[in-house]
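Sample log: FMN reductase.
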Amino acid sequence: MDVQKIVVISAGLGTPSSSRLLADQLGDATARRAAGLGIEARVTTYELRDLAVDIANNFVTGFAAPKLAEAITAVEGADALIVVSPVFSASYSGLFKSFFDLIDNKALEGTPVLLGATGGSQRHSMVIDFAMRPLFSYLRARIMPTAVFAAPMDWGQSVDGDPAGTGDLTSRVERAATELATELAQDGGASAAPKVATRPEEKSFEELLADLTSGR
C-alpha cells in the first residue's frame, strides 16, 4: 500500500492556538492508529493564519501564491483530511470558510474527513453539526461519525488515573482517530480512484447551461 497522505488544516488565529493543539492531537493519534493497522501515513499540517493574506489576495486577483497553491493541492490530493476551526459568531471562522471556498467543489468527493472545533464553552459544540457537517456534505466528503469539540475546561479536566487532566478529550480524540484510520485501511487507496461521471442533478448551473448551448 502506498503512503497515505493525511492533511491537517488548522484555522486557529492565536499563538499558541487551541485549534492547532487539537489539530496536532488528532493528527498524531490518527497516524499512530494507522500504524497499528499496518498503514504508513504521512501527516502534513497547514495553519491558515499563515496563509490569510494569500487567501484574501486570491479572491481579488484569482491567483494563488505558491504557499497557498501548495496547501490547496495538498488538500485536493489528500487521502484523508483533519480540519479544525475556532468558533466565531456561532459558526466556523471566516478564514476557514474562505480557504475551502478555494477548493474545487468536486475534489473532496469521497475523501474521509475528521471534523474538530474549539470554542469558549460547550454551548458552541453544535457548530460542528449545524455548520461544519453541512459544508463537507456539500463537498460530498465522507464525514467521520465522531467529531471532536474542545472547550477551555476540556484542557484542564481532572479524572481518576489521568494526572494530565485530559481523560475525556483524549478518549474522544482516540475514538475519532480510530475511525479515520480504519477508513483509510478499508479504502486501500480507493479515495484516489477516478471520479465517477457527474450526474445532471450534481452539475452547477453554469455546467447545465453549457450542456444546453452545446446541444448535449
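Observation: Strands lie at 4-10, 41-47, 80-88, 91-92, 112-118, 142-143, 148-150.
Observation: The chain has one domain: 4-213.
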